[in-house]
Amino acid sequence: MAFPFILLALLVFSHCCYSQRSPSPGYYPSSRIPTSPFDRNFRTQWGFQHQRREHDIITLWLDKSSGSGYKSIRPYTSGYFGASIKLQSGYTAGVDTSFFLSNHQEHPGDHDEVDIEFLGTTPGKPYSLQTNVFVRGSGDRNVIGREMKFNMWFDPTQDFHHYAILWNPNQIVFYVDDVPIRTYDRKNEAIFPARAMWVYGSIWDASDWATENGRIKADYRYQPFVAQYRNFKLAGCTADGSTSCRPPSAAPRGNRGLSQQQTGAMAWAQRNFLVYNYCHDPKRDHTQTPEC
C-alpha cells in the first residue's frame, strides 16, 4: 500500500510549495526584447542525434549514450540572455539542464562562466535552480564557484517559465519570470567577468555532484531525460560589434541597479526560496570569495 502514501506526499508537496504567487517586480525586461529565432542565433554543439526542433521548441535529451548542447554563433561582452524552459517530471536525479554564458572553450582552465542550472531530483522533491559565477579561476586557474540555489514557487515541469541572465559592466542579474532572484555586483574587477562569452544550453549527466552532492545518481532505467527550450531572447553587445553599443539596463531608465520594487521582489524570492548561499557556507574558505 505504498502507492497511496506516495501520491499523498506528492499532493502535500504540491500544495505547500507551489501555492505562492510572486510579487510584481514592476519591470519586465523579457517583454522589451523580441524573440530570437534559434537557427539565426545558435548552432548545435554536441549530441546532434539528441536534439529535435519542432516549430519553436528545441528539445534536448539525455540517455546512456549521450546528452546534447547548443552554442550561440556570436560571443557577447554584455547583454540580456533568456529562454523559456520546461523540465521533465519524475526521476531526474543526476541530470543537469542548463542555460549559461561561458568562454571555457577559448580559455580552458581559466574561464569565466555565468550559470543557470536545474539540478535533477527524485519524485516528491523539488528541482533546485542553481545560479553560479566563475571568474578566471579567480586568477589562479582554480575554478571557484559562487553558488546560490533556489527552489521555485511553481512546478517547473508543468509549463514553460522564462529564465534569464542580464550581464552589464556593473552587475549580473538572474531572473525567473522577470523576478530578480540574485544579483552579483562588480565590487572588484578581479572577481567580475569582463571577457567575451557565448550563450549555451545543454542537458548532461552530472551524477558526481548534482543531486544531494552526488549521493543519488542518474538512473538510466528512466531514460530519456528531456528538456524543452523556446522563446529565446538575446540582446546585447557582441564582441565584434560597434564600440558605441550600450549595455542593457537591469531596471527602468534612471536606475543604476534594481528599482525599489525589483529589490523587494528579490527579497521575497530569497526569503522564501533560497536554500543555499555560498557566502554563508561555513565549509568554504571565504578568503577566496572576498565579495562575501
Describe this structure in words.
By secondary structure, the protein is mainly beta. The chain contains 3 helices and 15 strands. The protein has an 8-stranded antiparallel sheet. Strands 2-3-14-5-10-11-12 form a 7-stranded antiparallel sheet. β2 (51-54) and β3 form a beta hairpin. The termini are far apart. Mean pLDDT is 90; it is low at 1-16. Its EC number is 2.4.1.207. It is an enzyme of class 2 (transferase). GO terms for molecular function: hydrolase activity, hydrolyzing O-glycosyl compounds; xyloglucan:xyloglucosyl transferase activity. Pfam families: Glyco_hydro_16, XET_C. InterPro entries: Beta-glucanase-like (IPR000757), Beta-glucanase/XTH (IPR044791), ConA-like_dom_sf (IPR013320), XET_C (IPR010713), XTH (IPR016455).
Per DSSP, what share of the residues sits in E-state strands of 2 or more residues?
35-45%
Q: Kindly, what is the distance between the CA atoms of the first and last residues, rounded to a whole number of angstroms?
A: 49 Å
Cα radius of gyration in angstroms: 19 Å
DSSP strand count: 15
Q: Which of globular, elongated, flat, extended, rod-shaped describes the shape?
A: globular
Q: Overall pLDDT, averaged? A: 90
pLDDT below 50 for ≥5 consecutive residues: which ranges?
1-16
Helicity range: 10-25%
H/E element string? HHEEEEEEEEEEEEEEHE
Q: Strand order within the widest sheet?
A: 1-4-13-6-7-8-9-15
User: How many distinct helices?
Assistant: 3
Structural classification: mainly beta
- Main beta-sheet annotation: 8 strands, antiparallel
